[in-house]
Each structure stands twice: as structure tokens, then as C-alpha cells.
Amino acid sequence: MALRLITAGESHGPGLTCVLEGLPAGLELAQEELDRDMARRQLGHGRGGRMKIESDHAEVSGGVRHGRTLGGPVALQVDNRDYENWRERMSPWPVDGEIDEVHLPRPGHADLAGVQKFKFTDVRNVLERASARETAARVAGGAVCKAFLGALGVEVFSHVLQIGTVHAPAPREPLAPADFAEVDASPVRCLDPEATRRMVAHIDEQRRANESLGGVFEVRAFGLVPGLGSPVSWEERLDGRLAGALCSIQAIKGVGLGEGFELAAKPGSEAHDEIFYTDERGFHRHTNHAGGLEGGMTTGNPLIARAAMKPLPTLTKPLRSVDIATHAPAEALRERTDSCTVPAAGVVGEAMVALVLADVHRAKFGGDHMDDVRASLEAYRERIGWPVG
């Protein structure tokens, strides 16, 4: 069965909704685990005033009873506390009096193309849904997917590699799940203390200059068996599905799998992961240049995906734009904003990778109940001689 996630809601509307369809019955969920990832999405040096208002909580409104999934769609609701300040402007129903329209599209945002596409005269009709606030609903659904994967021995983590011009040193390889135990304690979710210090200073410096910053985060998944995904169809190639999922996150402009773009400069002898075999370990590799992916499938090595995020388009010193009503030159909309959200984007990246990985597990192992899924996975492990852990 395919796993499908859909979200609804606007940035300053009443709230955000996530519906996750395709999970088996019997999956154990814990409210604190859902809310833990919601809180992690709000972390990071460089966040703006909105995060002082919101304290995100994912309320289950369907598909779960007494802490276990029922096999039907799981519905999650995330309320927007800031809606109280926007009740008239974002009311689902007509209000008395006129509401001022927004006519100043921001370069780098969905604003202008959106009003052209949907025949709107008010940019707010576009920016509210296009806002990265929507990712709160994705993280809620992603937390459920991570619980499903965790029950199958798969763990998903993220960390920040770059903010602006500041790069963290290449991580010591191979990283293990234990290496991520304290990543959220870093104000930029970086594994290197010295790089953390320089990233924080860079964000502060650029914020004083009225600039925003992008960067690069990395998502890693551990505990995968070989053969998830498929080479027989372009739609089923896991590389493409992961790249698409990560690029669907607001402001993401590039994705690299494994060593990604670095592989383009290497000769073949240095780009591929040689294959070895022992009775104790079975088939294995000593390197992981491919990031756990070959031919559109997992290899059993840790999966590694990197995403490049552009600077946020809402600036405290706005760029030049055009008033869509008068066509006169103007400054772009200035609205409350963050100066850097790369650390938070990594948590969203975890959610999207978890969604794709949960879906390929559902496609391969099926099952109406978690016991069925586990039995199918164990039978596959036995058939290919893949050890547990």
C-alpha cells in the first residue's frame, strides 16, 4: 500500500492539518515523541519573532486509539496561536469592512507567479500557503513516519554542514546514531563546536547588515536493508524520490546524494564503493561515496542526502519590486521573518526523508498490522542473508 501525506492550512490561518494515509494498524505512537520533533523544528539561532508566539503541538484527531494506529488515515492538527492577531485578515468567512490587500511581491518568493497563476489581486492569498510555516504539518506527519521506521530498526537524523560562507569540517566517518545525541544542543544544529561558534557569529553579523542566510544540511538514515526502491521505472528510483521530496521544502534549491556534486570531479576508481564479502558480515563496503544508493535502490549502507537552502526572501531591508495594482516601482513586502532557518530546515528534511523511506517500506513489505510488516521484513532479511543491526 502506498503511503500518502497531505497538508492543509495557511501560515496565519486557524491552523495546519496533516493527513497521513497508508499506515498499518498496531503502530505505537507517543504524544511526547510527536511534540519533540515539533519543538525541534522551531530551534536554531536566527529564528524570528514568530517562534516566540508559537509553541507547536500536534493534536491527533483521527486514526489512533489508545496510542496505536487503527489502519485508517491518521489526522493531525497544529493550531496557529498567531491566528488571534490575524483573525479578521485570515478569517475563512467574509468579514465586515475592507481588508487591506498586499500588492508588493517579494523577489525569491511565490508571490508574483502565484497571483498570476491563480488570478488573485492580493499577494496574501499566495504567500500564506507558500510560507514555510506549512512545514509544521509535514514535521508532524514525519514524526509518525519516524515512529514507523523506528519500529523496523531505521533511524533518521540531520545536522548542518554550512551556513552562508561558514563550512563545518567534513564529519568523521563513519558517523553512527550516537554521534547525533547532542546535535540539538548546538544553536545551529552543527556537530562541530568551532564551526557552531563561527556560524552563530556569521548569522549575527549578517542580521545586523539586514541580510538573510542560507546553507546546507545533511540527513542520514541508519538501519536500512538493501533493495528499497527499484531500477525498473524512473518513478520508483529512490534517488529521484528523495531529491524530489527534499526539493519540495521551501527555499531548497539543490540536493546531493552521498558525495553528490563532488563525485563529478573524481575518477571512477575513487567514486565507487568496492564490494567485499565475509561469512560474518556478508556483502559489505568499506566506503560510502554513493550515500547508500545505487541504481535507484538502497545498498544497506547509511543513506546520506544533502540539501542546499537559499537565503530567505523576506528581508528587513526589502529588495526592489513592482506594485501589482499600479505597476509603479516599489519596495517588496516587509513582514516579520527569520534571518536563518537552515537548522530548522534539517528537521523538515528528516520528515521528508522519513516519509519517502516509510513509503518504500510499505510498498515492499505490505501488511495490515505491524506484526505483518515485521514478519515480511525478517523473511526478506533471511532470504538475502542480511544481518540485524
List keywords for this structure.
alpha+beta, Chorismate synthase, AroC fold, five-stranded antiparallel sheet, four-stranded antiparallel sheet, globular
Structure overview:
The protein has 389 residues and is an alpha+beta fold. It has one domain: Chorismate synthase AroC (Chorismate synthase, AroC fold). The protein has 10 helices and 17 strands. The strands form 6 sheets. A 5-stranded antiparallel beta sheet has the order 8-7-9-15-10. Strands 1-2-6-3 form a 4-stranded antiparallel beta sheet, covered by helices on one side. The chain is globular.
List the SSEs and their pairings.
Blueprint: E1 4-9, E2 15-21, H1 31-40, H2 50-53, E3 59-62, E4 64-65, E5 68-69, E6 74-79, H3 111-118, H4 124-130, H5 135-150, E7 155-163, E8 166-167, H6 193-208, E9 215-222, H7 238-247, E10 252-257, H8 268-271, E11 275-278, E12 282-285, E13 293-294, E14 297-298, E15 303-309, E16 320-322, E17 329-331, H9 342-365, H10 370-384
Antiparallel strand pairs: 1-2, 2-6, 3-6, 4-5, 7-8, 7-9, 9-15, 10-15, 11-12, 13-14, 16-17
Helix pairs in contact: 1-5, 5-9, 7-9
| Residues in β-strands, percent | 15-25%
Count of runs of 4 or more consecutive helical residues: 10
CATH fold type: Chorismate synthase, AroC fold
CATH class: Alpha Beta
- Strands side by side in the biggest sheet: 8-7-9-15-10
The tally of strands reads: 17
- Element order, helices and strands? EEHHEEEEHHHEEHEHEHEEEEEEEHH
Calculate Rg over CA atoms: 22 Å
Going by CATH, the architecture would be: 4-Layer Sandwich
